[in-house]
Amino acid sequence: MTREIPDIVIGRLPIYLRELTRLAEDEGKLNTSSHELGKRLGISSAQIRKDLSHFGEFGKQGTGYHINYLTDQLRDILKLTQEWDVAVVGAGFLGHALANYHGFLHRGFRISWIFDSDTTKIGEQMGELVVQSVDELETVITQNNVKVAVIAVPASYAQEITDRLVTVGVRAILSYAPIHLNVPDGVEISYSDPVIQLQRMTYYL
Amino acid sequence: MTREIPDIVIGRLPIYLRELTRLAEDEGKLNTSSHELGKRLGISSAQIRKDLSHFGEFGKQGTGYHINYLTDQLRDILKLTQEWDVAVVGAGFLGHALANYHGFLHRGFRISWIFDSDTTKIGEQMGELVVQSVDELETVITQNNVKVAVIAVPASYAQEITDRLVTVGVRAILSYAPIHLNVPDGVEISYSDPVIQLQRMTYYL
Lengths: 205, 205
Hints:
2 copies of one chain form a homodimer. By secondary structure, chain A is an alpha/beta fold. Chain A contains 8 helices and 11 strands.
């Protein structure tokens, strides 16, 4: 995979996309500028223009960006013109929260399955989903060609689940388990650990 | 505030700390090396040595790091020798998950209060906590000199809650609301939005 565009640039595109959506849907705006976007996001307008310039010309000097057009372009770049089915592994409190979170809607993802190994949880309704046995993980992922998964299991199970997901073709994993996970080249992994985020901030206190 | 050491370096220290704890507590190890740490974390050993060198000499050529000593030093650098009381605002599914999460224990934080504006939730038991009215937010934070908070409210309320927290002295905020928040200088803010993380990965699929 060529990574000509820095990861950090790619990482800002979803932030731009989210703010553009907010401008359009919540505030009914049609146009914006790198200046306005930057001010709202605490990012310099020059940075925004430079980030976007990696992908083409999206605005005009003086008139700025047409929000719908730029939104479409960003969704295209980030491969969000389709909706990705997401498998969640782990139906504890966090899995429960994910199954009930409406923030995925219209942003390119749909939580389509939730798995657990706990027989007392299998069959339980969570949001619009029913918890399935983790024994069915491979079958469901293979049959539905699932590429995206979220791990919400304890740290001690996270690597095993990761390996199983990768074996059957998952290529993007968001893990809430507080542990570093090994994945082969070609598999993207991202972590969310509130303690790591808090510890980073207390340094500055 | 001087920021002589790059943020990205500070951001890796909690990762090192977490892995050191794992080595000591789960595997009973007493010593490690930048090579072993790096291999387990997918970070080069040179990077680890360079990061740590900002703060002093923690290891010896050939013998590596004494895990307990390095752990103590990192906890000291990150101001984790005390336990920070954390206020969670928002007692929805996510707040519920946070109140029941044991991952904060022994890592420098204790979720001590959870607030909501929904009268049907106030008084409800969540983990070891009882949901309190958000009307009590300022009093509790002031009386207990709380510096750290987690926001788990809808995007539309997040800025208002942020402003209220900052006004009464909160200096580090982890927000799960999918919106950029404005905070004054001297206040640290960190975001967790699963969709942003997933969108960043689908670019590479």
